Amino acid sequence: MKLAVVGGVHASGKTSLILHVARHAARQGLTTGVYKIDAMEAGDDQAYGRHDIPAVVHAAPDICPDHEAMGVLDDAYSWGLAKGLDLLVIETAGLCHRCSPFLGRFLSICAVSGLAGILAPAKMRPLVEGADIVVLTRSEMISQAERQVFLDRLRELNPSALVMHVDGLTGEGTLPVARAMIGRPDSVLLPLEPLRARLPMGYCHFCQGPGAGRELGL
Predict the structure, then answer these.
(1) Which residues contact 127 (CB under 8 A, 6 or more apart)?
(2) CA angle 178, 181, 183 (to 5 degrees)
(3) What is the pLDDT of residues 9-20, one digit of tens each?
(4) pTM of the predicted model, to two decimals?
(5) Coil, helix or strand for 181?
């Protein structure tokens, strides 16, 4: 089973991106499943279900979803294996986006909405800098000039990443993302999977709520 992490702000088009990736994978006979971690349950499991994509929506009531993702990684991986998935996508939507939810060994994808404002890349800097692929979503809703400025700023923040824009409605531009996910080797989860970002960027007590004492396995 291949594993990828997709991070980004709320309503940044992550779900649409993953749906298109799953369609590309299905054309190759591969099954995709999604384990989504969010601040509350938003019904995305039903959105995936309408496309026959296995999905779990896990609410993170006491901590930022980006950090909660690390605590439930074993559960997500075991669920994917039990479902017989070829590709498991962990979708996470953090709160402040000053930290990186990405794991060191697995493909990491950051979604940035073109509607978030031209300063959004800088505000999401740790998330953008930690990704293998940076995807400008909702690009069909902004001008070509704005799109180019967005892409240039994203490339400045992460010169080594594959930076692209996609159309969430038609799926245009999503094939390279699907190929990157599908082309990865199968993943074997280790007892300890380090984050890409060092503390405190990878973990912050300000992100915690009433469950501040819970074990995250970091």
Answers:
(1) 7, 8, 94, 97, 99, 100, 101, 110
(2) 100
(3) 888 999 999 999
(4) 0.90
(5) helix
